[in-house]
Task: structure prediction
Amino acid sequence: MKTDNQKAWFLVLPVLILVAFSAVIPLMTVVNYSVQDTFGSNQFFWAGLTWFDEMLHSERMWNALGRQIVFSGIILAIEVPLGIFVALNMPKKGFWASFCLVLMSLPLLIPWNVVGTIWQIFGRVDIGLLGYTLDALGIDYNYTQGFYAAWATVITMDVWHWTSLVALLAYAGLQSIPDAYYQAAKIDQASRWAVFRYIELPKMRGVLTIAILLRFMDSFKIYTEPFVLTGGGPGNATTFLSIDLVKMALGQFDLGPAAAFSLMYFLVIMVISYVFYIVMTNLDKEEGGK
Amino acid sequence: MSHTDDTRTSRSHTGLFAALVAPWAALGLFILWAGMQASGEESVIEWTASLNPGGWMAWVLPTALFFWAVAGLLVLFSILAIRDPETPRRGVLGIETTRGDRLFIALLASAFLNLAWLALALGPQWIALILCVVLAAAIFRFV
Result:
């Protein structure tokens, strides 16, 4: 018979308290704010579903969501194939393998705001290497004023920062393929493409799924880098969801609409996280079943 | 399992169930009391007044009842899970789900259904709530 010792539950209490203060209480407060209006000094008045209605019909929110989806789509379309390409061409063993690994992980170690600052200076036409060079080549590049320049810079920055993650994950997937697979492919005179398509890609499926979901989630909630680089501008060109949210909540102090907005944002993230969780547990089961 | 073992297990669970249900019921009474206090009159519930004016977290009766209901669902499903443990099953989504998973999916789907209802301006929100119950029933049956 199983022993019933419910006292062990008390060991979970510290975690519960921590989560309550860092997640549950703020979330409940946001829910409370989302159905009320305030004029400051902590006085609240009932507003019902007004803010949800307003936000659902707000062009501003849909535009920010649109920009967010386009941004996540573009960086995934670049980072995933590029990451795989880099991983395929990295040395498999020896000094250069370690050297490449260290080099690849460097961008991952840099904090977001520093990445933003690096690119902000790098792209400046007067003192930045990138901006100055492009200007000298006669290309009209100014990320603070041009729509395309701002987007190109934000995307390049993200690709620079995070392709390494995809590459490192893909590399780990590649390293786990036994040599016997490649030998068998050689005997069958398989082409390079066939080796990639039928050996390497299936073996990388698990880590690539994780890479895609991680990058999607991270890019979907991106804030610091574009905020430091462009501040959401020029105009609203690079105002992604979280930047717009902070503008609304802290800049304009529209707590009600911002709360309704953030709850909807939260629901979307929740769905993505759940899909992530399902995929991860299914992968675990598949690995365990082998 | 012998008969005595069976009763012992159920008795030890009764205490646990009480420990889960009692705080939840007490919380419900407290919310009701706070709702009456907010109106300033005996036996009158003020639905939209602030439960703690100028206080922390800006509570109001509908949100308090919402979280109380969600807590109640968690208590109910915890009790069900202890009383009647189940093996996960595979439904129309092709993923393995337990009752708890289905509750999570049902709640999440209900949130989106309510938002869609509001966005498309299809009518009063209580109709969406009824649809949510239907949706939840479908999720518990087929997912």
